[in-house]
Specification:
The chain has helices at residues 18-31, 39-42, 50-58, 62-78, 90-99, 112-122, 144-150, 163-172, 201-209, and strands spanning 5-8, 15-16, 85-86, 103-111, 130-134, 156-160, 175-179, 196-198. It is of the alpha/beta class. The strands form two sheets. Strands 5-4-1-6-7-8 form a six-stranded parallel β-sheet, sandwiched between helices. Strands 2-3 form a two-stranded antiparallel ribbon. It is globular and about 55 Å long.
Length: 225
Amino acid sequence: MRYRNAIFDMDGVLIDNSEGIIGCARRTVLELGLPDLPDETYRLFIGPALMYSLKTYAGATEEQCEEGYKKYREYYFARGIDEYRVYDGVEEMLQTLTEAGVKCTVASGKPAESVRRILETSGLGKYFLRAEGSDRPKKYSDKTKQILAAVVDEPAVMIGDRVFDLLAAKIAGVDSIYALYGFCAPGDTDEIKPTFEAADPHEITDIVLCRGRYANIPKQTENIK
């Protein structure tokens, strides 16, 4: 076993919720009177804090960001939160890890109530000892607090699909696995390199348990800038 604690991001790692988030984000942008964006730009909303995305990708003002957060929450909790699917292989991965004695936790930038609801409706909650989310609206996408709170044993590793996960893991002092099947964006790993990369949930299992082709592969921490 390479890691005793596997910390998972939610969006893009455990679930594909692009339909719900893109739909709610587009409606929010249009309600704010801002120009519509292409789908590939709305995909960038998945991962960062909403107010960061509204400002960075849609050009919203501070006042529009505050208003947009309220509108988005209304749309998201009415419908968007249930528009997701669990990635193929995720439940098998979680079951294998927990049976091997790995302690699984969640560290997400999503509101804590969203994290709890999705874990309940997806049936994945039984695999996690702890699930951390944000407790208030955030203008910035720093997940360090959630990762630190999700560490229940060492060595620990953070599994994420955006640069924000990698950066927070580095600040928190834990290794990282970059989930290539998620919502990875160009340039995410230009400045900060993950310890490992995984093409699918099965590879995450092998990395964490140090088996298969990962049994003798050393960590790539020397590449982290």
